[in-house]
Structure formats: structure tokens, C-alpha cells
Amino acid sequence: MIRLADDLELLRGFPPYAFNVYLMGGVVVDAGTRFAMRRILRQLRGRRVEAHALTHAHPDHQGASHAICETLGVPLWCGEADADAAETEGLVMSRMPPHWLTRAVGPHWTGPSHPVARRLREGDVVGGFTVLETPGHTAGHVSFWRESDRVLLLGDVVANLNIYLGIPTLREPERIFSLDPAANRRSARRMAALEPRLIAFGHGPPLRDPGRFADFTGRLPD
User: Where is the Metallo-beta-lactamase domain (predicted)?
Assistant: First the structure.
């Protein structure tokens, strides 16, 4: 694992930074695709894990969720508006915008559904971080914020990776994956206003440049 801050580690993956999974104060955040099960469980061996939380219920974030929860005996937590998708077979794909690419790839990445023990809302505390509701990419997308050292786990509100070229760069989520791009931009600008010193993304390497992040979100259309 790569230590990013106190009580925040990034699990290693291949390709690096493609599908990020974090250990945040004893909570596993996100789960990659269903093919990530072995590499996640291997790195968590011997570590204290109390729960598993999702930033959102998309195939590349919930794929190994059932395996993590069953193997480690921990509950699944998810944003309230995404919880039904996480725990109901077939809803993950139906909540995504229709597109040939998602139809072709998504079913192969999606993992089994799993009951959601806790539906996360604004202001809840998870692993020492505060839950922020950041809808747009999905209806129930959440991010995690720790004000004491200004660390933000952003999920897919913004990516720091060109998913086609594998090059680190700040980007909006691809339109074919986002339900409401305008709402997602509002969430991104809200997160930039926090002036985070460290931003951990769902896709791409971490960023320690709040000015660059603010400049990017400031250029987004309304």
C-alpha cells in the first residue's frame, strides 16, 4: 500500500491508478471491478478492517464489494441514493446512461449485489472523515473530507486520468458514465471551495495542488 496521509492508504493496482481502492481509517473505500478481488484481499491481509464503503455504485467501484464483505465479515455502506443499486441485482447497470461501451464492458465488471447496512448521508462520519453528498456522476455519489488536514477522497467527481491514454490529467467523468454532468460540475466546484491540500481520486494519482484543482473546476461550464 502507498501511504498518502494519516489513516489513508492507497492499495496498489495494475495499471497503477486505474481503479483506485483505499484503506481509510479501517474502512475500505471502493472495490474496483470484480476482477480486483484477489489483489484487494491480499493487500488487506492482517490489516484492521471494520467496514467497506462505496463512493458510488458503478461496476468499476463495487465489483469486488460482495467478496470483501463476505471474506472479511464487514458491513457495506453506500450513499443513500445509490444503496438500492448496490444491493439489487441488475440495478447497477440500469442506473448508468445507455451507451454501447457501458453495455459491452459494464456487465463483465459488475460484481454480485450485497445488502447495504448503512445508507450514508451528508455529515455522517466514516473512518474519521465526514461524508459529503456529491451527486451528478450518480444520484448517490459521496465524497469523504477531513478538515483537520484538508484531505479529500473525491471518488469520480473529477478524475486525474485520461482513461483512454492512461495519462494523468484532470478531467470531468466521461459523459457516457455520468447521469447529470451539470450537477456533477456543481459538486466539483463545491469540493474545490474546500481548498483541499490532498485530493485522492477514483481514477488517477493523488494531487497536492489545490490551486490547480480550483483552476480546473473554475473553467468548467455551468
Answer: 18-203
Q: Which domains does the chain have, with CATH numbers?
A: 2-218 (3.60.15.10)
Instruction: Say if residue 182 is exposed, middle or buried (CB neighbours under 10 Å; 0-12, 13-18, 19+).
Output: exposed
pLDDT over threshold 90, residue 115: yes
- Tell me: the pLDDT tens digits for 179-207? 999 999 999 999 999 999 999 999 999 99
**Does pTM top 0.85 for this prediction?**
yes
Distance CA 30, CA 214 (A): 25
- 166: region left, alpha or beta (phi > 0 left; psi from -120 to 50 alpha): left
Whether the Cβ atoms of residue 14 and residue 40 lie closer than 8 Å to each other: no
